[in-house]
Design a protein that fits this description.
Distance between the termini: 67 Å
Radius of gyration: 24 Å
Structural class: alpha/beta
Largest sheet: 8 strands, mixed
Helix content: 25-40%
CATH topology of the largest domain: Metallo-beta-lactamase, Chain A
CATH superfamily of the largest domain: Ribonuclease Z/Hydroxyacylglutathione hydrolase-like
Shape: globular
Length: 352
């Protein structure tokens, strides 16, 4: 009888331990699900500040940079192309003024800590069209209102516009991390992907270069061999793990740039690493980024870190992504690849 009782108690203890193990496993699974589902909110919470960050100390920016005031610098790329830097902002933004014969174009406008229009007006008397490379807060100029704003014509953006007004979502804008309110943009002009933007005596091709976000574009001056790349490519850490990031989109962007560029290219990014000077890269970095993405997709390249996963592209560029099992590789708009026509179908096949 004692032996039977002991056996029953042993089975009971085993059952309790098993149930506890199951409950613990379920608890871990729920916690993991919550972490995965809320990873963006957790990331935003981790980097959110009470307001705009303090300015960095003013330092020597080299002989090629002229200080406009105590915040902005101006680099003259050529007589009609200027890089307007913000080296005292911790992200070290660069915005580009591209001048034609009849109008000028401002590609990105920073966070709006200062009014970039004062710099622009010192460089050109022509009417200026503002074009954001994408819709993150550090490129839109906050409360700075431009007379004419042009935006890439993408279905998911155009469908939300009422009376030329486009309200942005928090995952498009991300301004909450520095205390900026969500804006509503007034859109005066729509830019067709792969289309030409005429500045009078100078034209720019609008290249759809997603990956960092699904609304990212670059502007290509074929005559000069310049690519103004926004956050698609710059020296430093490329963010490919945000809510509207997509590695298949990033790969599509590299294919587009390489196809459009020809044999040489000067790539001007929207941010800079710690090196003094312009955030300039070349076609070789575009090619290496494409190779890195293909290796990630094939599973043949090891990453560092967990979240985000980090992949070295070269000595100046690192790609930050989601862990492999969360990565997305289906491009959103494959038909917007360059060159138009069969390129989209070719890319869809490559991306599978």
């Amino acid at each position: 009888m004692r032996e039977e009782k002991a056996t029953a108690e042993k089975h009971s203890d085993t059952g309790i331990l098993f149930k506890r193990a199951v409950l613990a496993a379920l608890g871990l699974a729920v916690a993991a699900f919550v972490l995965i589902d809320q990873r963006t909110n957790l990331f935003v919470y981790a980097i959110t500040q009470d307001g705009p960050p303090s300015m960095l100390p003013r330092e020597d920016e080299g002989d090629e940079a002229l200080w406009f005031d105590d915040y902005y610098t101006v680099h003259t790329i050529d007589q009609r192309t200027f890089a307007i830097g913000e080296p005292r902002y911790y992200q070290k933004n660069f915005n580009y003024l591209i001048v034609g014969d009849t109008r000028a174009l401002l590609f990105d406008a920073g966070t709006g800590q200062r009014d970039i229009r004062h710099v622009v007006e010192s460089l050109t008397d022509l009417p200026v069209t503002f074009v954001p490379s994408h819709l993150h807060y550090d490129h839109l100029g906050d409360d700075v209102v431009f007379e004419n704003t042009a935006l890439v014509n993408l279905p998911h953006l155009r469908a939300r516009v009422v009376d030329s007004q486009l309200p942005l979502s928090s995952t498009e804008h991300f301004g909450q991390v520095e205390g900026y309110s969500l804006p509503t943009l007034t859109i005066n002009e729509w830019l067709e992907p792969n289309g030409e933007l005429d500045l009078g005596g100078r034209s720019l091709r609008v290249l759809y270069t997603p990956g960092h976000t699904d609304d990212s574009i670059s502007l290509f001056d074929q005559t000069a061999g310049y690519l103004f790349a926004g956050d698609f490519l710059y020296p430093g850490e490329l963010y490919g793990f945000l809510p509207n990031s997509n590695l298949g989109d990033y790969l599509q962007g590299t294919v587009t740039v390489q196809a459009a560029a020809g044999s040489t290219l000067r790539v001007f990014g929207a941010h800079r690493d710690d090196r003094v000077g312009l955030p300039e890269l070349g076609l070789d970095t575009v090619v290496r980024l494409q190779q890195t993405l293909r290796q990630i997709q094939a599973g043949s390249l090891a990453s560092e870190g967990v979240y985000p996963a980090m992949y070295g592209v070269d000595e100046r560029v690192t790609l930050l992504t989601e862990p492999r099992w969360l990565q997305r590789w289906t491009p959103r708009y494959p038909d917007l690849s360059w060159p138009p026509g069969d390129a989209g179908e070719v890319f869809r096949k490559e991306a599978k």
